[in-house]
Model the fold of this input.
Amino acid sequence: QKEVEQNSGPLSVPEGAIASLNCTYSDRGSQSFFWYRQYSGKSPELIMFIYSNGDKEDGRFTAQLNKASQYVSLLIRDSQPSDSATYLCAVARGKLIFGQGTELSVKP
Amino acid sequence: GAVVSQHPSWVICKSGTSVKIECRSLDFQATTMFWYRQFPKQSLMLMATSNEGSKATYEQGVEKDKFLINHASLTLSTLTVTSAHPEDSSFYICSARGDHSYEQYFGPGTRLTVT
Done:
């Protein structure tokens, strides 16, 4: 079992819809969770981090953490074509452990 | 967010030569810096972790004599690819983390092509 797992996608959603990206992790002791966005040919960009159970909202982005079920998700409301990218989930354990990323495609 | 720069953004070198890549944290002190490599269509692969003033810790399978890392100050780390070969061609990305923080900020990356 991989330490951090994501569906590789691609996940395709129409413009204006909600995109839901999911991530599960194996280490129950993990405390800090991150979502990065990576455009093709570019380096990752930090979108959000979450430490506590529940939801954390920042603009069109909402991160959700459920430690009991060991999953963290990212919701993107009102998806735009410019949101098309690979989204990386990461869990901090001294260093970041990355999932393989989910490719999101937002169709106009 | 914090800003991390890398130089050069791309480099082409001949097989057998060495290439140095710089990574700088511009507006914060980076107690820890990380070096990643990414091949096309693949995920990030952590190569090594370096703390200011200490020797780098390399991930399993990464040759420390080939990928020399120096973290001489709280704002600068360098990666030197020695005796580069075509299979070293990749996208090299650094990231930096401040003290008392888990957030890592990535540099823009360096695309290395070895001919």
